[in-house]
Specification:
Strand order of the largest sheet: 5-6-7-8
Structural class: alpha+beta
Order of helices and strands: HEEEHEHHEEEEHH
Distance between the termini: 21 Å
């Protein structure tokens, strides 16, 4: 527990540092007189686990603490302090930026989120997340999940050879902390969502390549270690 608390304290320090730097950036934009003319998007690539499901860090699981990330958009013409409750996705951010810039979004997986009325109309989209080859003991696990518009969440766990290792099912409306796995109680929903995931992966952007071993040069190894991705 002391280690988890230490990680939490370090994370809080990182958040505080980031908050200060964002404040400096906004002050600079305001000083140049362009803050009210600038679109600002604040988001994250992933969350962080602090022992909620027995994990610490990230790229270990697909529980909400790792994949439910913030998304704040500020810009000209947007209503202040409006909270959008519909479900959107990280892949919607690039089409949103492209739309702001007047660039075609044809061929992109996501869909624009602006103007705001479009979020309400196109929200609650099927969300897909993956965590490729996370290590669990001596096993490399391939984790994928779907969150449906009705907030049912299906997690599929497979080995490197796509051998089934387990399935998990959660009702995020009734159980937002993901404490009650419904997979054994509701095998029909698991089967239906597994088929939906197969269909989604077959027609969407994701193709699972054959995993290859690649040699890493020492400079790259040092950079990844400095960023905390290698021990």
């Amino acid at each position: 527990m002391a280690a988890i608390r230490g990680m939490g304290d370090a994370y809080d320090e990182d958040v505080l540092h980031l908050d200060v730097q964002i404040g400096r950036l906004l002050e600079m934009l305001d000083g140049y007189g362009v803050l009210d003319k600038t679109f600002i998007i604040l988001t994250a690539d992933h969350g962080q686990s602090f022992g909620e499901h027995g994990w610490a860090g990230h790229k270990q699981s697909l529980y909400q603490e790792e994949i439910h990330i913030p998304l704040i958009i500020k810009g000209p013409g947007l209503p202040p302090a409006e909270r959008v409750k519909t479900q959107v996705r990280g892949v919607d951010i690039l089409p949103t930026i492209a739309g702001i810039c007047g660039v075609s979004v044809d061929g992109l997986v996501g869909a624009p989120l602006l103007p705001v009325h479009r979020v309400a109309a196109g929200g609650n989209r099927l969300v897909y997340s993956c965590c490729d080859y996370a290590k669990f003991g001596e096993v490399m696990r391939l984790l994928t999940c779907l969150v449906t518009p009705k907030r049912m969440k299906y997690i599929r766990i497979r080995s490197q050879g796509r051998v089934p290792l387990g399935d998990e099912l959660f009702d995020l409306e009734a159980d937002p902390s993901e404490r009650h796995d419904l997979a054994a109680e509701d095998p029909e929903t698991v089967k239906a969502l597994s088929a939906l995931m197969d269909e989604f992966e077959a027609r969407a952007f994701w193709k699972w390549p054959t995993r290859q071993q690649e040699k890493m040069d020492e400079a790259t190894r040092k950079q990844l270690k400095a960023l905390g991705y290698l021990q």
